[in-house]
Amino acid sequence: MGMNCWRRIRSARVVVVTTMCLGSLVIGGSIAQSRPSGAHSCQWRITAIESGPVFNETQFLDPLHAYGTDGDCVWASEDGGRHWTKSHCVQSGSDKRDRIRGLQFFNWSEGWAVEGFHVLLHTTDGGRSWAPHAFDKQIIFGLRFATPERGWWVGEQPLSGVLDHRGAIYSTADGGETWDEIPAKLNSQSAWKLLQVWPSSPTDVWAVGDVVVHSLDSGKSWPQLRVRSPELDRFGNVKIQFQTPRLGWILRNPPDNYLVTEDGGKNWSPRHPPTKPPFVDDLFYLDPQEAWLAAGRVYHSLDGGVSWSVSLGSESGETEPRYGALQYLTDEYLLIATGNHNIAFCKLPGR
Predict the structure, then answer these.
(1) Which residue, 102, 35, 100, 5, is CA-closest to 327?
(2) How far is CA 141 from CA 75, 109, 138, 168, 169, in A?
(3) Which of 122, 241, 250, 295 is the most buried (most CB within 10 A)?
(4) Alpha-carbon distance 258 to 283, whole Å?
(5) What is the pLDDT of residues 206-233, one digit of tens each?
(6) Statement: residue 14 has pLDDT above 90
(7) Is omega for the bond preceding 254 within 30 degrees of 0, making it cis?
(8) Is 109 a member of any domain?
């Protein structure tokens, strides 16, 4: 996952508990044996999820406070993921397409979620109430804010009078009060869509899907990416993320490989996941050399993804917890892996 957190905190609770972090995580938890893989090898501290669902996505704001979703509900935790309470749920009996499919919180009070394919949800009171922003004709696939004021969503919308569709990009500069369509003019004769958007800064924004587009003017224009990489000619890009404006990666479907850039997207190099058959749930690069990958187990690389070793999990069978999401809390130097039964924490050295 690898989401950023902003320091515009509106709840005193977050400020107070941040200084408590790892001491609280060890209480009642267990320490997993980590396999040596060189520098920054993890001593994972495991917290069992005692009440709550199996999560599709989680976002920790600090070591104790987190939000997550299982598709049916948004959940909140104030004790490091041990216990979770419901914050918002889709209506009972609603279509499976109306599931919660993404979330992003700026602090304990304010955040966004995508419900179904047509609705953005916004809360400013810690999830006690949610204001919907509906888009009846457009289809929303991905949402991301660079700051609490400036954000983008991407997806697709039908073309008037024809059975066809094209990618959609909408932006806000006022915290979601208004959303404006930003045309992406591509020389494409076929239908296309965008699946995810990622701002590496408020002015440098990427979006991927059937094409890769890149804006350097806060999303005012979106030229199609022209890069020296034959891999990007085979469309199937489903997720993009940047750790810095220069270091980023794209996950693909089918997941035979993923792509990494170290020069701000001018060049992309293919890397291969360590699993057979190849599969990637989530990926995170701390720097060009050190990477972490979740695919049931958590893998660690110290050579940029050329080789991998297992850091968390084993080959003992289906009873093992399955980890599928990664996040790094930069201010805490804390790597977090979310599993189907556990939350695992690893304190990395300061960088």
Answers:
(1) 5
(2) 21, 24, 10, 10, 10
(3) 250
(4) 10
(5) 999 888 889 999 888 888 776 555 555 5
(6) no
(7) yes
(8) yes
